Amino acid sequence: MNKKIIIAVDGYSSTGKSTLAKELAKHLGFIYVDTGAMYRAVTLFAMQKGFIRKDYFDAVSLIESLPEIKLNFKYNPDLGFAEMYLNEFNVENEIRTIEVSNFVSLVAEISEVRAKLVEQQQEMGKNKGIVMDGRDIGTKVFPDAEIKLFMTASPLIRAQRRFDELQKKGDKVPFDEVLKNVEERDYIDTHRDDSPLVQASDAIEFDNSIISKQEQFEKVLKWIKPS
To answer: How many CB atoms lie within 10 A of CB 127?
Structure first.
């Protein structure tokens, strides 16, 4: 595209937001930012420090340690996208585990965490020409984004997608555990006090429960670049 705009892709977990956003950014020659990876990296930091584990969360210590957290993306030409780095270490694989998934929504509830990351995200998009996906991009980070998409699909289908993804990586996680994680994240994301997951009034809702990735990409691209 000749004109640089901001494309905000919000929605529920495991709806393929990142996949779609990456494809759009590559096709349009825009920068892609995976904000979910940023929250996952902060969650991994909290786990490494012992601030969060099953039935325990020391949010105060995490908040006090936020100045220690340095996040950045580094482009990997072999993969064709930027990977997440936490304090100069590549954590792209570590942040995609079910363990991190189990805690990320709790960490994302913390207002101080959101404030830190939203500030960074807004700085990344100040020159536009960016595709950013997450939970509050079109409502909080870039409320004036030119294009807003809201991705959804049934919990069962999203759980199956996540289950298949984990299986390919060798993570032998029971399907019931994956489904429980999807449902719990949906509840936390939509009920938190600070920037809950809601569809922006001017966002285009897209249910991809029964559509291929290619069909999805082509349809969304027509919305962005109508013929």
So the answer is: 10
- φ and ψ at residue 51, rounded to 5 degrees: -80, -20
pLDDT digits (tens, 9 = 90+) for 196-220: 999 999 999 999 999 998 999 999 9
How far is 124 from 119, CA to CA, in rounded Å? 9
Residue 125's φ and ψ, nearest 5 degrees, are -100, 10
* Count of alpha carbons within 13 angstroms of residue 114, beta-carbon side: 20
The SS3 of residue 148 is strand
Residue 121 tokens read as 């995200």
Name the token pair of 160.
């199956």
| 66-124: pLDDT as tens digits | 999 999 998 888 887 889 999 999 999 999 999 999 999 999 999 999 999 999 999 99
* Helix H or strand E encompassing 146: none
3-state secondary structure of 3: coil
